[in-house]
Write a structure and sequence with these properties.
heterodimer, A: alpha/beta, 9-stranded mixed beta sheet, 9 strands, disordered C terminus, B: alpha/beta, Rossmann fold, Nucleotide-diphossugar_trans (chain A)
Chain lengths: 346, 336
């Protein structure tokens, strides 16, 4: 029995898995096991993982591809820890991350989901100027719906009791219980967090510090944004019946934030036209992002036409970077490469 | 020697379900052999609690900040007898959906529960929540699953033939989740299927409007005789958003109806008695569950369901008998 289990879903990550596992081995808090769930990799992910199996706390499991949710579900099913953390196989944990989260959870029995901010890194592991510094306290279901303070899939350490409370038997599931919804291949994080927020009374709370190094992908993702929006809409549609009044009140603003995020992604791709279209749709839903986050929204509005020219002047780019618009600054790649992977909010 | 006197406190807004459970206690022959039970109704949230001549007081009141002064007065005015509180209202899902300031709410519950010698959970799921969230100490709490007289339901004919008539029974309030059910049922393709909703409440107009899209769905209004309502359906659906126990599920199970429950709070307790679990309380999962029921064999009744009525009555009385026996002997603090 270990105090904590860290689940590492791994799909064709031979290039980065070693660094991820090394960062876990180097944790200052040592009472944990690592479950590497190889989700049907076709590269030599297995060989990389095997180098770590001399450490008796490391376990390697192989399964046919089920997607990120399926890999996490398998990891939870095989875990023994009282606390469960997730670290995607291209991200890194700060050496003190686990200790701080366990201390946080030990001291706050009402907190079920403990998370922290993240520092973005590039493909080579260099620090980028972009950070996720989410709201840490007083987090409600509305905050989760609108701003997803957990931020990314490698940030949270969660009490097992929380998963026990949301476990369900899926009609097509591979394992006995599902926790993450395997029918989603995108938006699976927000789906799960929203379910925890609406079905259980566990608190979400963050701790200070940037404790995850979150690797941003360099490949173009613009074609996927519309699909990403679809999957987000599916999440909303699926949960609406749980609490109709809650969604009636918060859904338009949440959609506006989501659309603004997609606009910012489009700007990163140099596609100002799409960005402006997203922003227009955002304001038709709600003006909340304008008054709640005026600087971020304002910069996005200003950046949209600039991005469409595809050449950002140095001062404008500096402004973007300063205001935390996702652009690569230190990479050798084009400054307009998208730097946020997956479908997470910035 | 005369029998001990036990007073059950209700407030004037207590729901029908709670009143029926308390009445069931008062009508029990076995419990009457042990003590004399009576019901006393007091105004909601009153601070002016009377001094009650009793050997044991059982509160079925709803805890609130406004009622806290009354509970403190209740404790202060009855220092030498045991006080029991039965928690009929609060659950994990209630808290998730209704409470913005949880720490404050938990403080209320901890404070209120600390005034009682014993706190009773009405389902195992609810009890587990009370204890794991440290709202009450395990040694000062227990679980007694609620019960009513199920014999009239058990006497009903078991349904036969293909499962077509679905029922939803309860107050028409968002808590009961009948809106989810209407959306789910309207997506089910079987033309002969029916959904009959029994009950009244604040959501009536909204549900009626929703039900207009599908002539197979009817709102039947309040059913003064719940046994009769039960006799008119083959399956009972409980899509509650929160539910401390779910007596309707017990009634449906006793009547050998196919019973589908959301995986919520005390409804999870119904699974071991033969209820079917709907994976999640979403429209899609309810549609799937209703579709699956259309082809279900109604003649196959789990053993757990067949003799539920007798079993439930016995367990309920035995548990209360034990709790009362323990509580009548209050250990007084020894003078220093």
């Amino acid at each position: 029995m270990y105090r904590a289990t860290i689940v590492v879903p791994a799909f064709n990550v031979a290039a980065t898995l070693g660094a991820t596992l090394t960062s876990l081995q180097a944790q200052t808090y040592q009472d944990f096991e690592v479950i590497i769930v190889d989700d049907g990799s076709t590269d030599n992910t297995k060989q990389v993982a095997e180098q770590f199996l001399d450490d008796r706390r490391f376990w390697y499991i192989q399964q046919a591809n089920r997607g990120l949710s399926g890999a996490r579900n398998r990891g939870i099913a095989e875990s023994s820890g009282e606390f469960i953390g997730f670290c995607d196989a291209d991200d890194l944990w700060h050496p003190d991350k686990l200790r701080r989260h366990i201390r946080h959870l030990d001291r706050n029995p009402n907190v079920g989901v403990s998370y922290a901010g993240s520092q973005m890194i590039d493909a080579e592991g260099r620090l980028l100027s972009v950070k996720q510094s989410p709201r840490l306290r007083g987090v409600t279901a509305a905050h989760i719906l609108k701003r997803n303070p957990i931020g990314n899939g490698s940030s949270a350490v969660i009490r097992r009791a929380v998963f026990d409370d949301i476990a369900y038997v899926h009609h097509e599931a591979y394992s006995a219980f599902s926790y993450f919804d395997e029918t989603f291949r995108q938006s699976e994080d927000i789906e799960c967090w929203l379910r925890i927020a609406l079905l259980t009374d566990w608190d979400f709370e963050g701790i200070r510090g940037l404790l995850t190094y979150y690797r941003v992908a360099g490949d173009g993702l613009s074609a996927k944004t519309e699909r990403q929006l679809d999957s987000w809409e599916n999440v909303i549609a699926k949960h609406r019946s749980l609490h109709p009044a809650f969604f009636a009140r918060h859904e338009p603003a949440a959609r506006a934030y989501q659309l603004r995020y997609l606009a910012r992604r489009a700007i990163s791709n140099g596609d100002g036209k799409t960005a402006r279209a997203y922003l227009k749709r955002a304001w038709s839903q709600s003006y909340e992002p304008l008054w709640a986050e005026p600087i971020k929204s304002g910069v996005t509005i200003l950046a949209a036409p600039v991005a469409s020219l595809f050449k950002v002047s140095a001062p404008a780019q500096k402004a973007l970077v300063k205001a935390n618009v996702p652009t690569l600054r230190q990479s050798s790649q084009s400054p307009f490469q998208p730097i946020l992977k997956g479908d997470h909010y910035e | 020697m005369s029998k001990p006197r036990i007073v059950h406190l209700l407030d004037d807004t207590t729901t029908g379900g709670v009143t029926r459970v308390v009445t069931h206690i008062c009508n029990s022959q076995r419990l009457a052999n042990q003590a004399h039970h009576e019901i006393r109704v007091i105004p909601k949230n009153t601070a002016d609690v009377p001094v009650i001549e009793a050997d044991l007081i059982v509160s079925h009141l709803t805890i609130s900040w406004r009622g806290l002064a009354g509970l403190i007065a209740l404790r202060a005015k009855h220092p030498n007898i045991s006080l029991i509180h039965v928690e009929h209202s609060y659950t994990q899902s209630f808290t998730a959906l209704n409470v913005a300031k949880r720490e404050r709410f938990f403080s209320l519950l901890r404070t209120a529960y600390s005034l009682f010698d014993t706190v009773v959970g009405v389902s195992r799921a609810q009890y587990s929540w009370l204890v794991t969230r440290d709202l009450v100490a395990a040694e000062r709490s227990c679980v007694i699953r609620s019960a009513v007289d199920l014999s009239a339901f058990a006497a009903l004919e078991a349904p036969t033939g293909p499962c077509r008539v679905f029922g939803a029974i309860g107050r028409l309030e968002p808590q009961k989740g009948f809106d989810t059910l209407i959306m789910a049922f309207s997506q089910c393709q079987e033309p002969d299927a029916r959904l009959r909703i029994f009950g009244r409440g604040g959501q009536h107009e909204e549900l009626e409007r929703m039900a207009q899209i599908d002539p197979r769905i009817t709102l039947e209004g309040h059913a003064p005789d719940p046994v009769r309502a039960m006799s008119e359906v083959q399956a009972v659906l409980l899509p509650s958003r929160w539910e401390a126990y779910g007596l309707v599920a017990q009634e449906a199970l006793a009547a050998r109806r196919r019973t589908l429950v959301a995986p919520v709070d005390g409804l999870c307790d119904q699974l071991e008695d033969g209820a079917h679990r709907v994976a999640r309380n979403t429209v899609a999962d309810w549609t799937r569950a209703i579709d699956a029921s259309l082809t279900a064999d109604l003649s196959k009744i789990p053993d757990s369901q067949a003799r539920l009525s007798e079993r439930v009555a016995g367990v309920f009385e035995r548990n209360w008998e034990g709790l009362i026996a323990r509580s009548l002997v209050k250990e007084l603090p020894v003078a220093a």
